[in-house]
Amino acid sequence: MRISVVTPGELGASQTEAWREMRAGAEAPANPFMEPEFTLAVGRVRAQARVAVLWEGGEPAGFFPYERGPLGRGRAIGLGVSDCQGAVLRPGLGLDPRELLRACSLAAWEFDNLEAGQKLFEPDAADAFGSPVIDVAAGYAAYEERLRERSPKFLRTTLAKERRLGRQAGGVRFVLDERDPGVLRTLMSWKSAQYRRTGRRDRFSQRWISTLVRQLHESRAAGCRGTLSVLYAGDRPVAAHFGLRSRTVLSCWFPAYEPEFAKFSPGLILHLRMAEAAAGEGVALLDLGRGAAEYKDALKTGELRVHEGATLRPGPGAALYWLGREPVRRAHGFVRDHPWLAARARRTLNRVGRLRGTR
């Protein structure tokens, strides 16, 4: 086996096609974050983005996208916003993860949403988490019937709020794939305000993330297509979501709504209409992403598993990584495992957000 390292932009057409074919043959859901288009997009905004191309018999046998930082510290491509991570490998490929890291000049490779079934890296996972999903493979009507049986009050209340919103605003309409960049800017401003209100770092204040989202909104690739879904009350957007879509998976990413309409639960209405419209276009799965949230618990039909951790190659670089990252990761895990601490942390973050808002 031979391993070459290139920037994403240096991948040839035959290599990206081989990547797509390997993903098409994988048993895992067709998550758009694992398609070459996502890595190519990150490569345009992150100078440290790289791809290790594995060769056997003169043919591509695998692809490993990553970002390389100082002292050989590696991380998943787009870490911080990528919701599905790992290598794309030909089935049965024999590979030592430490040898792969050595070929990439990495002392460590960090992941926080490692795809289930990534046998190369799963042994190094420190934690596993559920990523809630909505299964609409049998159609939206079947999903709504499951909701009606499991959470009748939730569905009845949400649909009633949708009707009240329509009466007040002169009608409600939904667009699955809105192409207007102005509406995307509105969503990003809502999301930035939400980050500030809740005391969290505004992701869109990082130029590479906001640029990445704008570029992916323009993507029409079948395997990784930026999709902006919008709920309108009259002619006014009241809730929106930007995510990535393949032919069969819609990966939910950035949802937000206009706080003025909070009493109508526009975000919940939006997700129901997304599920309905996506199912009508052949999408089988909406991946709501890792992270606890009441709306996810209300909407989900099941969960996928994702993993957090790091693969280390013995040496001083790996030791430095462990000392700098592992205590923080363990502290976060301790808080997550103790609900009263997690609740206190959320209250503290919300208090910080309110203080920011008064400045």
From TrEMBL:
Keywords: Acyltransferase, Transferase. Signal peptide: none annotated. Residues 155-296 form the BioF2-like acetyltransferase domain. SUPFAM superfamilies: Acyl-CoA N-acyltransferases (Nat) (SSF55729). One of its GO terms (molecular function) is acyltransferase activity. Its EC number is 2.3.1.-. Coiled coil: none annotated. The keyword Transmembrane helix does not apply. The keyword Acyltransferase applies. Pfam families: Acetyltransf_6. This is GNAT family N-acetyltransferase. It comes from Streptomyces kurssanovii.
